[in-house]
């Protein structure tokens, strides 16, 4: 019997296994979040709302159908923080860690699974990579927890409250979870630039991509003579440049579009921090220092476009990912110049990677458009609010113009599916129903990670 | 002096020349439509409205800022019909025809120009092609004129009126011009299925692509023994299949989405004809048997998506074109199956064609999204109405939810640019600013025409 189930598992492709693992995580999260122990006394949650919260947490999106602070008990908040951690770092990373701790041998098959989950194209160093990711993220979170918790002492009556807030805020920001237990995101800290700065740094650590963090860490800890021989990978260069260009673009556009509206009575530093924070949060963070529904429609649509692009691959974020966006734009520009081969930073881009980027982008446009039209049928909200909600779910961002709790059941199911697709990536989603082919896993070394 | 200007002309790429020719046509149309002789007495038109009408006619879009029947004199209506004819069949086709009539020798350079305008990839038979196009379109229009004019005798008081209506209706339908002189499109004929049927046939003749018409004509006129050796080109198969699949898809979706709304009190044949006509008209026709603003928001968004796709290449229509859409979808499906090479109808698609299709689609998504966001800044209409207007202009369709006359000047300029890009094609637009390279015009024979 056990033998048979093993053979059934072996017939699945790595992508199918990843999807099954994420689905199992959703199931586990649903059970934990559905426990009466997780709710405040007197609160009852409908099944769809429990599933919604579970998927939102596993996919580190942060869209909420119920106010977290008023609905969940302290135990429930810990459960959500745990699920965010689980979803954010990736089930496979944590799974590998457990295997290592338990002294299990990591075979080729397990390595391949991890490879797929982290979008890596080579087997080598996978286990080392996972260890590094875990160490890095936990270190970042610990520092965030200590800094924020200590700083929050001035805001809260007891040290327990302050460090509890710091604990949750650090995890929610670093995993880009987007959940809050303040009841109104970061609006209570709209004038506290220190809190905002720490949050921006933590969000960027989560959204910029684990391989980038690891390369930067290796560079920083290397000896001076070693550094001369080190070079950053093509992936790190492309994704980091794109990431920061998008942040700058978002900041400038939000500032310009709101200059006469939301920013009309604001000081220069308020305009800077509001624009910068809301630009960074569209990469995947989902926390906000203001009620984004106060922005004009045009700003909300630009933010939707930014959320559609999303964060870096191999990060806690979703969307089509920065590399897909960069490759597709560079492809169009190269084509317009009448050139055939695509070069970035003196390297030629592999045709397979370009194809992946194009497929991801086209599939994403179709998925998002179809979802928007479906929601115009089932919901009665203005189109802008629906587009914002759909791109926020697909980008696993978690910002909302406020319609999430009032969605119909079909609307909630649609958003649940979008968050799930956003997390596993649209390519994985596409390959879920595909039979595995042998020999697909040997590629040359200098490749770019796509969506 | 003359020599110098010739050298300047020779330095331009074919695409640049085509754009200059179309721009000249807009200039000529602007002058003609701006003539007081073209207006009814007492009517004064602003400059931007004259330019808008001129571009709308040259690009055979049919969006109008002023009601055609109430604004233009009989002379003005003839001018518009003339400009529609000019724009619809293509300036180069008419230009070649004039060259032929004037006994001019058609050299390689001129052939190449025509080639670019008609999206053809080989020089051979270009002149013959243009002659065939002109003969075909004029024959179709003549038959349309006679049939409609004669049939209209029952609707109008005098035979002059009936045949004048028939003349304009036949040109407007065949060129997919979308203009009407009834004052309310085809709504007066909403119960006359004969008029609707003739219009649908004429619209399809214009939108299905000239090469398709010519191949079908050759096939029909061939002897039985010749037919056995004839085969339709890959282009004809792909574009025709896609065209009709889109028509069927549109009909079914409109019928389903409006079943409980606009169609709630309609009989089955009304539902069929309303759905079918509005589906066909989104290919590029622009005429309508109803006020499309009576449809639900979801139907309007589906129609926007259909208008974004548009008509066949080398037709009077715009959009990303049926071939781009088909190739991109087939590319995604092929990729999802893990295959490398793209096969349609037993032929392999050339990689260059696929690249073109992808670039067209990506560029179109960016152009349309940017225009929509720009219009949300300058206009105060609901987002759905703006999306509908923008895709209608880009697809040179000409349907509107009624906001065209009330657009701001920036809004009108945006729509003007979109109609122009829609007509010349987004690839031509992309290459307008590119210097020509030698040796770009030799391709293998079995190619597909893209966008
Ligand atoms: K998030
Ligand atoms: K039209």
TrEMBL record, chains A, B:
It is found in: Cell membrane. One of its GO terms (cellular component) is plasma membrane. This is ATP synthase. It comes from the Bacteria. It comes from Pontibacillus halophilus JSM 076056 = DSM 19796. Keywords: Cell membrane, Ion transport, Membrane, Transmembrane, Transmembrane helix, Transport. One of its GO terms (molecular function) is monoatomic cation transmembrane transporter activity. Its main location: membrane. It is a multi-pass membrane protein. InterPro entries: Cat_transpt (IPR003445). The chain crosses the membrane at residues 15-35, 47-69, 75-102, 133-153, 193-214, 234-257, 316-336, 357-377, 413-433. GO terms for biological process: metal ion transport. Pfam families: TrkH.
